[in-house]
Amino acid sequence: MNLAEPSQQAVIDFLANPATHGGAEVQRVDTHAATVFLAGPRAIKIKRAVKFPFLDFSTLEKRKAACEAEIEVNRAYAPAIYRGVVAITREADGALAIGGTGEAVEWAVEMARFDNSQTLDHLAEAGKIDGALADALGRVVARAHEIAPVVKDAGFSDALRTIAAQNEEDLVAAHELFPPPAANALVEATRLALDKTGALLVARERDGLVRRCHGDLHLGNIVLIDGAPVLFDALEFDPAFATIDLFYDLAFLLMDMIERGMQQQANIVFNRYLTQTRRDSDFDVLAALPLFLSVRAAIRAKVTGARHDKEPTVAQSARDYFALAGKLLSPPAPKLIAVGGLSGTGKSLLARSLAADIPPAPGAVWLRSDVERKALFGVSETDRLPEAAYTRDVTARVYASLAAKARRVLAAGHSAIVDAVYADAKERAEIEQAVGSTAFHGLFLTADLGVRIARVGSRTNDASDADAAVARAQERYDLSAIAWHKVDASGTPDETLRCTKELLA
Hints:
By secondary structure, the protein is of the alpha+beta class. The protein is 46% helix and 17% strand. A hairpin with a 2-residue loop joins strand 3 (34-39) and strand 4. The chain is elongated and about 90 Å long. The N and C termini lie far apart (52 Å).
């Protein structure tokens, strides 16, 4: 690090003084590139006069440009937080002022202050990220990616190779932290993955799926405001670093959750994102997801490891990230699990509970007939469809689409769990044929009519349109011989899940 300007101490002292903020208590937060002053309802952030290989804030002009870029990038995600760029000025009497009329001696980002305890890294540590919040998080990331500007000819595939090469150099050099044999194995596996996925990444860029993203999408850069997750502190100092494949952006968040042992929540974010975007091409990029996750973990390993001399306790954290990088890049073979059963047997609840535990990370893609049917008609998954949407021909299209998507997921080396009634033997045969040589597990849930009617009657805000009348009508179905494992689902969801895991073990 090079301090490229005279000390900013006078500005720091001024902003740290409660008198500057009407007597409000001031909290100061330092990072490698910025200093933030929290006072009352406001936050003032200045860029430090530093120069790194990856950023340059060495002049006042560069710091002003960086502040302007931070506002421009982050307002798209958090307009309620990012207010604007403000000058720190030297007034005629020699005193400093925020937004005065004198000469600008520093530039700052002005923000609305939020409760730091509500950032998602803190909520994760407190065990407060539940399924509902994870689902909301998947929606927020999908919306952010929808509005992210498309960048053509960015060369993301080549940029990823450069990132991997930097990781290689840094990880191999840190031999006191990362055992050379393991580091060399990770390097070789990364190279092979880059070669294998290069053409896929180029094709995705051609299709507009490389965009100016958040770029630093981990739990510490997401905050809960009025009960909703809000992204902030997007990477602003170099647009090239944030001009990436959408799934590489998502991979940082997923990796962060996986590293924290939040597999269930990571899987919910993952599947909600896929459901919201409705891009079938995202099933193809799952072939690159192990690489994306591994590279993100490797970056965290080397960055964390760089601090271990000053903070010995972080050495183990660096090693954990390194081990995770290797594990993520060596995923087990995929599998396909089909969950059938009449309405009210608990198929969707079981599928959602199982998905997180089905490798590769972050768990299986969950394909659901109810959601697929709503997508076919272009409506929200909780909108009710008319009877015309449930004809035999429409249902055949839904089941064919499920099988096609399952094949696509499996072809990318990822696992899928498909949830549908599967009352017809032909439907069951169709999904079985989707697996090719992949391991297949068929489950058919059973429960008495009274149990099923009670369950469908208690649903709220659900994708299924089934009601008591549908449940009764299904009693007349000719199920034919069912070769799948039959699971008694008349007990509690936990009992069904436990029984199913025993069958799959």
